[in-house]
């Protein structure tokens, strides 16, 4: 047998892709302590903390308006499955954190959706989870966005769109009340 045949099967690794944006990043360089475009391994039992205090936070943002510890991400395996996920917790007493449209106050936590936008202050972070099998560690891959993420990416609208394609808020704004029409009358 060749060494190739005897080699252990490679496990895929869960990777959390994080794309950062701040309108003042050009002048203020608040992301200068982050390692962009290079994957970094994080042990499964470590909590990935983001904030201003580089002695406590693995991912440090150089900005006095950011809390010492802004938020944390905790890697876990979902109960009764082989799937993995991340839990995000707001650790800032002063700044609320939003994940898509969910607002988190101090110590609030939720499961991180597989694709979402995390916002606090003027910061926008697009988080995308690439699933893997390894249970000992996960990877982070940081990217820098040049344009605002909220304008660049279109998240699905939570408001249903009617079959005629006209938004209810548009038709009501013209002073007409909604009326029911038989589809044979069209």
TrEMBL record:
Main location: cytoplasm
Ranges of Polar residues composition bias in the record: 166-177
Subcellular location: Cytoplasm
A Pfam family hit: FHA
Biological process according to GO: innate immune response; positive regulation of canonical NF-kappaB signal transduction
Keyword S-adenosyl-L-methionine in annotation: no
Domain (FHA): residue spans on this chain: 49-121
Descriptive protein name: TRAF-interacting protein with FHA domain-containing protein A
Organism: Irena cyanogastra
Taxonomic placement: Eukaryota, Metazoa, Chordata, Craniata, Vertebrata
